[in-house]
Design a protein that fits this description.
Elements (H helix, E strand, L loop, with lengths): L6 E6 L2 H9 L8 E3 L6 E2 L1 H4 L9 H7 L4 E3 L3 H18 L3 E5 L2 E5 L4 H4 L2 H16 L3 E6 L2 H11 L4 E3 L5 H5 L12 H9 L5 H6 L2 H8 L1 H11 L15 E7 L7 H21 L2 E12 L4 E12 L2 H14 L1 H7 L1 E9 L2 E2 L17 H12 L1 H11 L14
Parallel strand pairs: 2-4, 7-8
Antiparallel strand pairs: 1-6, 1-7, 2-3, 5-6, 9-12, 10-11, 10-12, 10-13
The chain binds a DNA duplex through helix 3, helix 9, helix 12, strand 9 and strand 11.
Length: about 400
DNA sequence: TCTGGGGTCCTAGGACCC
DNA sequence: TCTGGGGTCCTAGGACCC
């Protein structure tokens, strides 16, 4: 007894490009590329010519000179995503969003009121088509992983049910690249051992897979290949970090220019943080040098914050520390991400020093400890890490 | 092929605490 | 007083996904 196929994975087809074709009838039936410098999305007409997501714009135009290249309209995609997710939630309360254009839906409890998973999936596809004007593919299976593989195999505009008794027949012949979590590096490691199909990976001993791919990745992929995936559809997942970045091209940048860009990025992120009623504790500065090597520099605060001035002060400090490297190697990307997100009602101490004056972090932390006590500051840090914490922490004055 | 922008998860060493 | 082991946190890097 294995359980039934009640997990749906719903995935919009060529999402950004499909929104463009929906909104501009002249683009329908034509190859469409979203994004100029790099391909963010390609319509199926462009994919048929070899254009792929993340490909350089130059190469894409060489492959498909007649493609229409349009700039991204993130607001339109965001709205389309909201419209589709509203239909997901109208279908079942158990929805786990994976990204802007895909989600898992658990429909196991709905048989009596809404029919079989297959009937539910057919209605869902029809509603997304008529109400939002987009094509969506759906995979149905016993586990999240199999449902995701099924929707990918069904594309474009497909529906595929993997019945529990046919799982091996479905999965084992597929190339290892189909496994969720196998990218270029892992695929190459497996290929070197002559492993090309999921079935061949399943034949390995688990210990062998762990030795080859690392403990967690090896165990995880080995379990997937053997059809083990106990993860339930989880409606409680929340974003763990938010970030923003900007590619800069290759020309030299002055310190003033970089500071302006950094300020814009941090300002935008801090707004998003507050709009979402969240706080953060860790600020990560992302850099890509002139040779495209990447680096990160981070700092974790002992207390949560959503203040632009605090975040900007930390980010500026990190950037200043990296300045010699930047001068020497050049810089092609700058970004910031905020993690250790917490709730807006987490304890946020009044900062005892004017951050606009550029006070050093260490000075501020010392002042905080003086005022609230080291234990309180450390405890605030602990509680700020727990997004489920529901009571604002009051500082214990000494 | 001259390489976007938004994320997730894992690893590994050192600091620190009990 | 010295030593050891375990657990957690922080930082940096890397693979992977859409």
């Amino acid at each position: 007894m294995r359980g039934e196929a009640t997990v749906l994975h719903a995935d919009l087809d060529a999402f950004y490009a499909s929104v463009e074709q929906r909104d501009a009838p002249a683009l329908r039936g034509r190859p469409v590329i979203v994004g100029g410098g790099v391909v963010l999305a390609a319509s199926y007409e462009a994919k048929a010519r070899g254009v792929r997501t993340a490909m350089g714009g130059r190469q894409a135009r060489d492959l498909c000179p007649e493609a229409v290249v349009v700039p991204p309209r993130m607001d339109a995609y965001s709205q389309a995503s909201k419209d589709v997710f509203a239909i997901f939630r109208d279908t079942t309360p158990i929805v786990e969003g994976l990204s802007i254009d895909e989600a898992f839906l658990e429909v196991g409890g709905l048989r009596r009121i809404a029919g079989t998973p297959e009937q539910i999936a057919m209605r869902l596809r029809e509603r997304v088509r008529t109400e939002v004007g987009l094509a969506i593919s759906v995979g149905i299976a016993r586990t999240k992983f199999l449902a995701k593989v099924a929707s990918a195999v069904s594309k474009p505009n497909g529906l595929l049910l993997v019945e529990p008794e046919r799982e091996q027949e479905f999965l084992l012949p597929l190339p290892v690249e189909r496994l969720w979590g196998v990218g270029a590096v892992t695929a190459e490691k497996l290929h070197r051992l002559g492993i090309r199909t999921v079935g061949q990976l399943a034949e390995l001993e688990e210990a062998t897979a762990e030795k080859l791919l690392g403990k967690a990745t090896g165990a995880h992929l080995h379990a997937l290949a053997r059809l083990r995936d106990p993860r339930p559809v989880d409606t409680t997942r929340r974003r763990g970090s938010i970030g923003s970045q900007r590619a800069l091209g290759n020309r030299p940048r002055s310190a003033e220019e970089l500071d302006v860009i950094l300020t814009q990025i941090v300002d935008r992120l801090a707004r998003r943080l507050r709009d979402g009623d969240r706080t953060c504790r860790t600020i990560v500065l992302r850099l890509r040098y002139g040779d495209f090597a990447k680096a990160t520099r981070s700092r974790t605060l002992p207390f949560p914050t959503d203040r632009t001035s605090v975040l900007l002060t930390i980010a500026r400090g990190l950037l200043a520390a990296a300045h010699p490297e930047i001068t020497e190697r050049g810089i092609t990307l700058i970004g910031v991400s905020l993690s250790q997100l917490g709730r807006a009602d987490s304890f946020q101490p009044e900062l005892p020093i004017d951050w606009e004056d550029g006070a050093r972090l260490d000075t501020v932390l010392d002042a905080l400890r003086d005022r609230f006590g080291a234990t309180s500051v450390a405890r605030a840090a602990q509680l700020g890490r727990d997004p489920g914490w529901s009571t604002p922490l009051l500082p214990e004055h000494e």
